[in-house]
Design goal:
Blueprint (H helix, E strand, L loop, with lengths): L1 H21 L6 H21 L5 H22 L7 H20 L3
Helix pairs in contact: 1-2, 1-3, 3-4
Subcellular location: Cell membrane
Protein name: Guanidinium exporter
Main location: membrane
Length: about 110
């Protein structure tokens, strides 16, 4: 169950990163509220996952899902720049996540 908590926590991290961008510095109410709610939910689920998963594994995977997810949302939704180096960086992050998962004892 901890891995599911961690996966959902990572997806919520992507949501709050996106809505934080949409809040325009917390000047827009709805995106600001969504940011706060999803941030708290993401941290809460991360803490549940950390009950059984090692700190390094849980935190690395949570931030990795958030980083790669925000990268993908930036490109697909916000029209941000795509370059070979940025894609390579995302591939390296995902490779690290896979290795971290494979090395986990839980």
């Amino acid at each position: 169950m901890a891995w599911w908590y961690l996966l959902v926590a990572g997806v919520l991290e992507v949501v709050w990163a996106y809505t934080m961008k949409q809040s325009q510095g917390f000047t827009r109410l709805l995106p600001s509220v969504i940011t706060g709610v999803t941030m708290v939910a993401s941290f809460g689920l991360l803490s549940l996952a950390m009950r059984t998963l090692p700190l390094g594994t849980a935190y690395t995977i949570w931030t990795g899902i958030g980083a790669v997810g925000a990268f993908v949302v930036g490109i697909t939704v916000l029209g941000e720049q795509v370059s070979a180096l940025r894609v390579l960086a995302a591939v390296l992050i995902v490779s690290g996540l896979v290795l971290m998962k494979l090395s986990a004892t839980e």
